[in-house]
Amino acid sequence: MTPRFTPWEVTAQHPEGAPKSAPEFRGDWVQAANTDHRHRFSVSGAYPGHTVTQADDEAKTTVNQDGYTAIRVNLPPIGFNKARITMEIEITTGNTVKVDLLDLEVPAVVVIDPGHGGSDGGTNSISGKMTEAQVVLDVALKSEGHVREALRAISPNYKLLFTRKTGVNTSIGEGAGVAPGTSRQGIQRYQGADIFLSIHCNSGVASARRVETNIQWGKVPWENLSADAADQGNYNHDYDKVLGQEVNDLVVGSLRTHDPATPDNGVVRNTNPRLVAHGPGVLRDSSTANGNNNSMTPAYHPLRSALVELEFISNLDGDALLISGKSKATPTNPNTWTSDEVREALAAGISSAIAKVIKQ
Question: What is the CATH number of the domain that holds 196?
Fold first, then answer.
């Protein structure tokens, strides 16, 4: 088994990212929760009865008298991990021939979550023209074509999922009356998501405005994060921070193209005591794909998740960006725009962030 996917890395010389020097596997087999999957090859569960002798990156099996054998190939389930399987056949004693049998690739899974929906409109805009739920759904739907194009440029082997594509309110978690795998948490878990991005707008006093991106508190210390937060349900904090920062930067950049005064609050953690203890349910790894679900562990399958607050639509300037538009130049900002153009730019920025992070 040899790697066939070359991940990207961000360095001081290549801040936008560049391919590493050689293909490699991401993830660590020994971190698999299922001990049978801690080797590159193992006995097939679908076709049992065939002996497999394991080594570091190869295995041996014997063809039975009917001319059949079976072997299971294991790859860490990280999107776009790709392996070439080479088969060495012993034709006669001591006489072998190698054949490149096939390439196997793990499909990348991206989940986009337009917040709220249905009877839950989220926050109201100061203009009253659109609700938060309507704004974020429009941005999410506009992102679909951009994300598909960006992922296809990497590989055609991907899945792009939405927690909603209409004006419905998808449940956060599973419970009475919620079918498994249909909630915002369940879609991540059952589909084996690599990236989960929840899109929201903010509100507050009329003067408040900013872009910010939330990630869940976690076990990995970050800045002044104390040991008291070690059980906050986020096992791969640093992965989430990378996604959050990339999304935040591109959202801010998209908005500042129109309104250079758009404030940037960066990547933030929850400070509300209730949220610190429980966190946004859609981001908490212990409830999604990084907990003990589907035999996943964070080192084996690091789901990256973040929640972006596009702007304060309770603020006149934030509303002008996302909802009402700006038809006249002003002394402080000569730019004009339609909000449809702004939402399209946001969708393009979000897709670029997803494509950049999923390759790392």
Answer: 3.40.630.40
- What tens digit of pLDDT does each residue of 67-98 get? 888 999 999 889 999 999 998 887 777 788 88
Beta carbons of 151 and 160 less than 8 angstroms apart: yes
pLDDT per position as a tens digit, 159-203: 999 999 999 988 887 777 888 888 888 888 888 899 999 999 999
Secondary structure tally for the chain: helices H, strands E: 6, 15
CA 73, CA 105: separation in Å to the nearest integer? 11
Q: What is the value of pTM for the model shown? A: 0.89
Are both 146 and 190 inside the same structural domain? yes
229 and 133 within one domain? yes
Rounded to an integer, what distance in angstroms lies between the CA atom of residue 195 and that of residue 174?
A: 20
| Tally of domains within the chain | 2
- How far separated are the first and last CA of the chain, in Å rounded? 21
158 with 225, same domain: the answer is yes
